[in-house]
Amino acid sequence: MPELPEVETVRQQLLPLVKDRRITDVTVRAAKLLQNCDPEIFRGILSGRSITNIDRRGKYLIFDCGDAFAIFHLGMSGIFLNDRSRSRHPQHIHVDIEFDDHSAIYFQDVRKFGKIWLHDAYPQIPGLGIDPIAETISQAKFAELLASTSKNIKLFPMDQGYIAGIGNIYASEMLFTARISPYRKTDQLSPAEVAALYREMHAILQSAIENYGTTYSAYQTVDGASGDNQNFLKVYQLEGQPCSNCGSPIIKTILGSRSTFYCEECQA
DNA sequence: TCTGACCTGCGA
DNA sequence: TCGCAGGTCAGA
To answer: Smallest Cα–Cα separation from A37: which of A119, A113, A103, A93?
Structure first.
């Protein structure tokens, strides 16, 4: 759900709303979201501070308050809204952050899989691989990562320890446009296939960011709108529909306990 | 390396 | 009423 393009869209939309605004109050109604402090400490540390920047690493958003850093992971259904009235599920708004100009942002998470941390220094998120948009990964390094393991290629980009930010939707999509079967193993790809996957990973993510992310169920942009990228998907959730390339029906299978969509004819 | 639990809305 | 959706992590 919120994968790299959705989280990056949220970051870009949220930043002008909060940058250099002073936080006057923070309310956390679901304490289980907080991983390393309780709601009162979270409120006490952030109140009075200003958000100077929002960074993103993989699917994590990092609110930079100078000498305090709030890290949000949106889980599967987390969204930020700039107006409570835009919420389809107001009972699931778990965090309010209010500012000195009387504006506010709201964190909603229906399934409560989101997580929040508070740090006093810029956080190094443990076990997080390379973010292909925020950082530069060379094709040689990408090939090296692929060769270093022998896992199923569908599961490789979803493993945040290798590539940070990709989830189930974009893993299926990039394998389709790179024409690689989801059943192939990482260390058995030809150099041409590695090059195609490297190219398509960047192209798919960049294009999804330009389309404000994919709204399939829960994801909404900060102003409550849907993303556009679901209109450009080639295989995800298109089981039985004709492949845009060859007309064969799109196949759905389960890999790593996750739905996987592909074209048997186009993906070898 | 793989599987299931967490969680809740939604559609069949 | 029940199964599915999926990001992450603990446990097998």
So the answer is: A119
Q: How far is the CA of A229 from the C1' of B5 (A)?
A: 31
Predicted structure pTM score: 0.95
- Look up the protein residue whose alpha carbon has the minimum distance to the C1' of C4: A259
Asked if A174 and A261 count as a contact pair (C-beta separation under 8 A), the reply is: no
**What is residue A257's predicted lDDT score, i.e. its pLDDT?**
84
Task: List Cα–Cα distances, A139 to A142, A154, A191, A262, in angstroms.
Answer: 5, 18, 10, 24
Cα-Cα-Cα-Cα dihedral sign, residues A77, A168, A233, A241? negative
Give nearest nucleotide to A75 (CA–C1'): C7
Provide mean pLDDT across the span A35-53: 94
pLDDT of residue A91 exceeding 80, the answer is: yes
What single DSSP character describes residue A21?
P
